[in-house]
Amino acid sequence: MRPEFLDARVSVIIPTRNNMDTLPATLSSVGLQQMTGVEIIIIDDGSTDGTREWLAEMVRETPAMRVLHTDSLGPSGARNEGISIASAPIIAFIDSDDTWARGKLRFQVEYMERNPHIGFTFTDYRHVSPAGEDRGTCFEYWNSPFRRQPPTHFFELENAESLLLGCNLVGTSTVAVRKELLQNANGFATELTSAEDWDLWLRLAQLAPVAATSMISTLYLMRPGSVTSRSADRIVAMEFIVSRYAERPEPQMREAMRKVRARLHRARAEMRRAEAAYTAAATSEIRAMFADPDRQKLKAVAGDVMRSLKAARSAFQPTSP
After folding, report:
1. 106-118: average pLDDT
2. What is the reported pTM?
3. Residues 240 and 217 in one domain
4. Does residue 194 fall inside a structural domain?
């Protein structure tokens, strides 16, 4: 092993594929972390946009960087490859179209070094559009009480497994986790077509305590894509993951199951809405509202009903001769 990796405190794993438009900014943000002992592992998963050549130049300039070349493993398979060669006891993930705030990593690693019983940590993050529009934070979206915690410290989660089942607060690019724990959990489940990150956080939460902070440490890029296809994959994966918890008797797990069933209904509503099937979307929103009532779902039902009526009127509108 090269000498620069012997004393690594944290290994940063970055999977990438054809992201030369954003990868330099991601890597630059890793360089702003105000700490030593950082090993950078980039897994180029079959890029054809010049990434391979650019990384060859970067490796020559960056002694603490290692590059793997894989072929269409997908983000989770690529991350698992990075985990397998990581030198440090703590691993942090960042996707190649996200960026970190200055000092995020040092804050996280120092906390975990002081608290060796904590298995993994995560932070809040902000969604941004490709045009740079602020789409709010994760904790805001889920109306999490954590957002009212001071961003200057981490707090240990009570009932972390049930909390993360009912509300997926964990952004992959915000996570720092102990390598030994990842190995014990067998890493990311590559057989899942979606939600494999959520699946891993749930399995890790069974094995060790979890801590979080309301610090907004990461900008998460929301790329456009097919809502229908992504939603369908995610619903299938979520149903599979949730089935493992359906028979858990603890009160907090039953409450989490109620919330996650509402999330599944809302995901189905989103997919139907993208297909302009507004009556079906309203039906799913109503089921979500009965599972976990709130004003947001009621507003969504009303919107779908109005769109459905408008579509029906348009369908029966007489045409001019």
Report:
1. 98
2. 0.88
3. no
4. yes
HEC readout, the chain: CCHHHCCCCEEEEEEECCCCCCHHHHHHHHCCCCCCCEEEEEEECCCCCCHHHHHHHHHHHCCCEEEEECCCCHHHHHHHHHHHHCCCCEEEECCCCCEECCCHHHHHHHHHHHCCCCCEEEEEEEEECCCCCEEEEHHHHCCCHHHHCCCCCCEECCCHHHHHHHCCCCCHHHCEEEHHHHHHCCCCCCCCCCCHHHHHHHHHHHHCCEEEEEEEEEEEECCCCCHHHHHHHHHHHHHHHHHCCCCCCCHHHHHHHHHHHHHHHHHHHHHHHHCCCHHHHHHHHHHHHHHCCCHHHHHHHHHHHHHHHHHHHHHCCCCCC
pLDDT in tens, 172-231: 999 999 999 999 999 999 999 899 999 999 999 999 999 999 999 999 998 876 445 577
CATH number of the domain where residue 21 is located: 3.90.550.10
Q: How confident is the model at residue 99 (pLDDT cuts 50, 70, 90)?
A: very high
Asked whether 191 and 197 are in contact (CB, 8 A), the reply is no
Looking at the structure, tell me whether residues 194 and 66 fall in a common domain.
Answer: yes
Q: What pLDDT score was predicted for residue 226? A: 43
